[in-house]
């Protein structure tokens, strides 16, 4: 599987996301999710640190912070047609590349996703919207971090 040398900020990756609701009971995610790399740090040691948000078919519950993923964007990225949301109130943080990257072709029909963990680039305007929503969640003190394997 092809893995970029550094976390591809602004891209979706296939990643075994560990939801906050599962974090106390397990060390790994239940399955791979399309996951947005929203930030990376290069100054924290010998490996890059990736910060990622997951996309899920589960609608947000009261108190959750999430944005709907536009159907057109899902088609553009070769994802399924089911309604989905990107959650901006919980982040997984891990040393890149880490053991939880997965083949993107299990989630996306894009030819570029074959034998790679990267699904594709997010449109700049939508990525900015996601980052603004995340920043608002941070200001409200609602973001929870789940540290993963380094």
Mean pLDDT across the residues is: 93
Distance between the termini: 19 Å
What percent of residues adopt helix (DSSP H or I)? 10-25%
- Biggest sheet architecture: 8 strands, mixed
**Beta-strand residue percentage:** 25-35%
Which stretches are poorly predicted, pLDDT < 50 over at least 5 residues? none
- Can you count the beta strands? 8
Say what oligomer this is.
single chain
Specify the number of helices. 3
Radius of gyration: 14 Å
**Number of separate domains:** 1
H/E series, N to C?
EHEEEHEEEHE
Specify the overall morphology: globular
Pairing-aware structural class of the strands and helices?
alpha+beta
Question: What are the main properties of this structure?
Answer:
3 helices, 150 residues, alpha+beta
Would you kindly provide a written description of the structure presented here, covering whatever features stand out?
The chain is α+β, with helices and mostly antiparallel strands and 150 residues long. The protein is 17% helix and 28% strand. The protein has one domain (11-147). It has helices at 20-23, 71-76, 124-139, and strands at residues 11-15, 33-41, 49-56, 66-68, 85-87, 90-95, 118-121, 144-147. Strands 1, 2, 3, 4, 5, 6, 7 and 8 form an 8-stranded mixed beta sheet that branches. The longest helix is centred in the C-terminal third of the chain and has 16 residues, at 124-139. The protein is globular, with a radius of gyration of 14 Å. It starts with 10 loop residues before the first strand and ends with a strand.
């Amino acid at each position: 599987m092809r893995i970029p040398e550094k976390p591809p900020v602004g891209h979706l990756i296939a990643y075994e996301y560990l939801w906050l609701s599962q974090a106390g009971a397990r060390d790994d995610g239940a399955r791979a999710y399309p996951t947005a790399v929203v930030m990376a740090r290069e100054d924290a040691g010998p490996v890059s640190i990736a910060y990622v948000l997951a996309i899920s078919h589960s609608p947000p519950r009261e108190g959750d912070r999430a944005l709907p993923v536009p159907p057109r964007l899902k088609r553009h990225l070769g994802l399924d047609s089911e309604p989905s949301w990107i959650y901006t109130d919980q982040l997984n943080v891990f040393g890149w590349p880490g053991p939880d990257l997965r083949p993107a072709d299990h989630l996306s029909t894009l030819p570029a996703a074959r034998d790679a963990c990267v699904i594709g680039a997010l449109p700049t305007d939508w990525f900015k919207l996601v980052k603004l929503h995340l920043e608002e969640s941070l200001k409200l003190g609602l973001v929870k971090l789940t540290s993963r394997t380094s």
